[in-house]
Design brief:
One of its GO terms (cellular component) is ATP-binding cassette (ABC) transporter complex. By secondary structure, this protein is of the alpha+beta class. It is built from 10 helices and 20 strands.
């Protein structure tokens, strides 16, 4: 009797040289990565970057042009979708409208010939996990969007797949519910220990839930790492601007000072730790996140790295912070987010200011990134 990979395959998800082409277009371009068993992994990127195509190839809904996909030692590249140790939760949930919630969840178990007693035990268990045991007899159209989302997850995990694939699973929910579901999905993943592979274009969603994020661009992984690593030490302007916002200022490395690079930015000398640099030559972009800047009226004391001669060109008060646009002498506007956690007066439009920040809060990109960053 053949071994059923849908229940027996276990281990890391291993993708080797995975490529998908449509005519001349490379949707996924020679992708290789290992997703450790039991991790929460996010594929993050804009529309058309290849993330959903990658997910569909893992699920068996698209055929790779070349490359391989394995779970542990089991090669699933050419396996039929229903034989794979994989379940998918889609944005539209795809619940059966004519079946009760109990029978929606039980569907996969019944198809595998699981006994009635075991079906009841397993369905009750996952309904309790998603905290909706009271809805077992209802139909999907009697549930809210958030409840349908949880039932779709319950239906997917009751079969104990090695992998749960989430395709923009929270896209149809409103913002408040989406944030609540982010926390709940992370908790469910921790509870059951199944590998979650989550596709999203929403950076906050990826950063809230995933242990590891792969940022995709043009069918390739641009950078992969923990949320903190990608945010604090992006290696390209694409990653710097896709996760949050970045001020990228062109400059030239003029020397070394111990563990720091000395960089000239339009006449201002600044220091950046060498470990925060991914530059190859002396022509660089220095990146500073808007919330890392300190802004003060001209003439007030400033420490660390300092840029002088700025003029406030716009002020937006948004409760927790005030956002300033500051026009610099070289004609570029820099963005500053100042926390509203003191009783200092707000700076006004037209006021002359000095910007400062601690060296450790900057990163350095290669000068070849200038064209793609929009810096000028």
């Amino acid at each position: 009797m053949a071994v059923d990979a849908s229940t027996s395959a276990k281990g890391d998800l291993i993708i080797k040289n995975l490529t998908k082409t449509y005519g001349e277009f490379n949707a996924v371009d020679d992708l290789s990565l290992v997703i450790p068993k039991g991790s929460f992994f996010a594929l993050l990127g804009p529309s058309g970057c290849g993330k959903t195509t990658t997910l569909r190839m893992i699920a068996g809904l698209e055929e790779p042009t070349s490359g391989s996909i394995s779970v542990g030692t089991t090669d699933i590249t050419d396996m039929k979708p229903y034989k794979r140790p994989v379940n998918t939760v889609f944005q539209n949930y795809a619940l059966f409208p004519h079946l009760s919630i109990f029978e929606n969840i039980a569907f996969g178990l019944r198809r595998r010939g699981v006994s009635d007693a075991e079906v009841k035990a397993q369905v009750d268990k996952v309904l309790n996990l998603v905290e909706l045991p009271q809805l077992a007899e209802r139909k999907p159209n009697q549930l809210s969007g958030g409840q349908q989302q949880r039932i779709a997850v319950a239906r997917a995990i009751v079969n104990k797949p090695a992998l749960l694939l989430l395709d923009e699973p929270l896209g149809a929910l409103d913002l408040k519910l989406r944030r609540q579901m982010q926390i709940e999905l992370k908790w469910i993943q921790t509870e059951i220990g199944i590998t979650f592979v989550h596709v999203t274009h929403d950076q906050e969603e990826a950063m809230t839930m995933a242990d590891t994020i792969a940022v995709m661009n043009n069918g390739k992984i641009e950078q992969m790492g923990s949320p903190e690593e990608l945010y604090d030490s992006p290696r390209t302007s694409f990653v710097a601007n896709f996760l949050g916002q970045s001020n990228l200022i062109p400059g030239t490395i003029t020397g070394n000072d111990g563990d720091n690079l000395v960089i000239e930015l339009f006449g201002n000398k600044v220091a950046v730790p060498k470990r925060r640099s991914s530059a190859h030559g002396n022509s660089v972009l220095v990146g500073i996140r808007p919330e890392k800047f300190r802004v003060a009226a001209e003439g007030k004391g400033a420490t660390g790295n300092v840029l002088t001669g700025g003029v406030v060109s716009d002020v937006s008060y948004i409760g927790v912070s005030t956002q300033y646009q500051v026009e610099m002498p070289w004609g570029k506007e820099l963005m500053v987010f100042e926390q509203n956690d003191d009783d200092e007066d707000f700076l006004r439009k037209g006021e002359k200011v000095t910007l400062s920040w601690e060296p450790v809060f900057s990163f350095v990109l290669d000068g070849s990134e200038i064209a793609s960053s929009g810096s000028h």
